[in-house]
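User: Thanks for the earlier help. One more: BRO1 domain-containing protein. Can you show the sequence and predicted structure together?

Assistant: Of course, both are below.
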Amino acid sequence: MMISFPGLSKLKTKPVVYQDVLLASDPGTLEQLKELSSKRKAIEVSINESSSVTEAIAREMSGGLTSRCEQDIQKLERYLPLLENLVHHVNLNRKNGRIIFWISGLNVRWSSVLTPSSIFHLQGPKFYQVNDLYFELGMTLFLYGALLCEQALEVVASDLVQSATLFRKAAGLYNYLAQEVLISLPSDQLRPPEATPSVSSIMSFICLADAQLRLLNDFALNFNDRFILGCKTLHELVSYKYLAESLKNDGKIGIAVGILRLALANARKNVPKEESWTSVYKHAIDELTGLLRKYEHENEFVWREKVPWNDELPCPEGWTVLGGESFRIKLSSLFSTRLLCVLSWKIHNFDGVKEGLDWFDLLYEKVSALVSEEKIVESSDSGTDIFKLTYLEGNSWLWEVGGVRILVDPILVGNLDFGIPWLYDAAKKFLKNFKLDDLPEIDCLLITQSLDDHCHLNTLKPLSRRLPNLRVITTPNAKALLDPLFSNVTYLEPGQGSEIQLSNGSSVKIQATAGPVLGPPWQRPENGYLVTSPEGQLRLYYEPHCVYNENFLEKKQADIVITPVIKQLLPNFSLVSGQEDAVRLSKLLEAKYVYRSMKNGDLDSKGLLSSLIESQGTIESFKEILLKELPEAKVLEPTPGVPLEISAPANSS
């Protein structure tokens, strides 16, 4: 099995002569700049394939290296320390106008191998120019990582351990590239995919998986066919579990029951005989059996859906959208990562079944989340006008707006129980292990309502101890709860607004709107919010109950509307609106994307209140109504933990 994407080292670059642009103050500095240019020249000639040096001379110049890939790696390892030293010294004087002018004069230009025109060879290489030394450093490091992967593939037939070591080195390099280098690039300049942190993060995990695969290929040579068959069956068992849960959440419980029955039937035919695997396998089968009983009971007494025959059941598969081109990816490829982790669990000899399963679940979630990241609109010049939306289950979200990270209604510590768990107690289904420690650096906390399912004190208390000065924007109804915790709180009445300033002088604008009244009629309404991107080209509207003031919103517009679309009802009382109300809201705001928020069933809940809540409508019925009223709008469904990126179109004004 091959995970790596070949051909990533086929980058091209234009010449850079440092001493012609950067003025040296002394002879020593001039010599250093000349050496830097010389080392880069060697790389330029090699990757642009413009060298007239024979193979024999190239071998002698490299000290006897016969592989073209190894020779290029050697050249990069001679150039990179000098380049990083220059970047360091330029950073010390980054605000100096002359330095900025000189760097722009270098005309650093690189091509891409990841754009559609490059992949399909539609035309010659397009060169991207970014006037920043971090662009030169980032593209050079990306090339270095790609060459390490190629070298790993060259030696795989003769030395699996060395191949794995090279892949691990590449993984560390791409992680450094994503976390330390590319985040320093200006966001307002067009750059190739290779110069984006998300691509480097994906490459890091792919290289880790490839490294693991190399070791496991070596390890698996000593295993008999029966053991490998058991691994395969376990991996399929877990794959079908995730598929069944996804179908159940989409209201297709009959198909989910069929999937679980088929998975268990296959699993019981292929129980591994190895004693060391018995407990792992039994744990997985017991978990699936319990889930099947739960679904069968619910289907029998509530839904009464027909269970399809085996040949009518779907196979596990997934979709990802990259650069505007759709590629169908079998989830078996992603779940193979779980299989690798299962085998690695055997190698690492974890103490218990749960520890091993939790370990490979964690790696699977990270890899699949990165591979599944979706881009809805790709823009070449939208600058900071990008929304990256990550659903954290329940009412919780993490939004990144033009680089500003906004945490919304977080529930990350304990369950949601309103302090009365016998009445209602709900836990997350998928992101069970996602904690406060897993959050990136947060710029703002946004709270919509004052009740526990939005203003969750079990989460906010430890968050305030970590970040007492965190910027908080919220409804005045939560004042009594938040004043003791945070020192930098802005309370917005409906119609009032606030701004989050960016370093470049622009700002993310947040305006409160009227939400539901959760109490007597004279009580102040809770909040919804309109969030506007720094350049004003994208606007998002969010209110978690689909309750809104039409008079206030009639002159507003939002490209993205996050709203519930399935009604949640108690006897004689509507908890959450949806369906026709959500369609009217989307039409009122002229939405381009409708991103459905939490529906009943998204959480594992128990208690008296949980048994009384009913759902009305489905995703499909909402789509039908919306198609009639707003045919251009797209309905998006969140995948917990998977970022969804929406950019302003290139011709926005």
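User: Great, one quick takeaway?

Assistant: DSSP finds 20 helices and 24 strands in the chain.
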